[in-house]
Amino acid sequence: GLALIAGPIGKCAQFPLHLWLDEAMEGPNPASILRNSVVVACGAYILIKLQPILVLSPLALTALVTLGTVTAIGAAFVSIAQIDIKRVFSHSTSAYLGLVFIAIGMQWTDFALILLVAHGFAKALLFMSVGSIILTTTSQDITEMGGLWKRMPATTFAFLVGSMGLIGLFPLGGFWAFWQGINAFWYDSPVLVLVILLVNGLTAFNLTRVFRQVFLGDSQPKTRRAPEVFWPMAVPMVSLTIVTLVAPAIFDNLSLIPDWELINPLSVVLMVTSSLIGIGSGFAVQFNRVWARPIQEPFRFIQDLLAYDFYVDALYRRSVVLWVSTLSQIGSWCDRYIIDGAINVVGIVSIMGGQSLKYSISGQPQTYALTILIGMTVIGLLVSWLV
Prior knowledge:
By secondary structure, the protein is mostly helical. The chain has 19 helices and no strands. The protein has helices at about 1-10, 20-25, 30-50, 50-55, 60-80, 85-105, 110-135, 150, 155-165, 175-190, 190-215, 230-245, 245-255, 265-285, 290, 295-305, 310-320, 320-355, 365-385.
């Protein structure tokens, strides 16, 4: 069971194999769209297909729930502390796939499937809008942006629709996905309901924070003359905006949306409340330079802890990377001085032997034949003695 989930853990960027996704954000934005919306989700889809086998291993299911919970909460917090707009959404992807892992571990494949689809639509749209922003501003630092809603209305609307489709706001896809999760865990594991609400609230706060700093406020030097993206990028973005808006109809055709009489009103209230609290907090908190780099030690430590991904990268460098590097250096030294040295000694002995023997050559063939015969006899005796 653990061997089956090891690959998807790395593929879906789950703790502790999640560092690659953040580094992959250096790639071009079309690759980021495919990676975060489609490729990364393939690992979770494989787990859904392997569900009949995974149920035979309670340890594997427990590991999925545990790692999914740690990743969902941790990545949601880490995403809040990022100022690189692409890294913000890379950690958000890990958080949502952590919820998918929880659903698979709890054997609620309907929730896992609808969350994968809803997340794919919304996150692809968000990355398209982010790509438009990066293309026109030539920057990924959200602290260098502001006032883009006047210059890029289509991108602003696409970002808003993608954000609303990602969190639990009625009636878009995220609402129905989270409702499935809350309804599934309501009686089986109420603690996981709190995890879903926490991740939803943190995501709403994070998206509001990015929206405020990128689209609202005063224009910055890099955004003052930023034009709307040209039509080859605008057409796919607008098309996906429409798809995200009609996602509930797609879910209804797939029979993923329940009947109204089955909906728990309290779960809906909690989900919408967590979304509104996150949005309200994102608008209420003042993001100034003191917030960007606190001077007080406790706040600065917390920000660094989240911004540097709980120092997991540094931990890897001081443990696994250090051990592998040390072993490779030892192996290189042994190969260069012991193995190559032994081979060089044999070569030197052969050369010296040849140089010394060339002066004892008599030129008589019978002497050579006798020498060969004696040598072969000695070798034969040694071989027979060893055998």
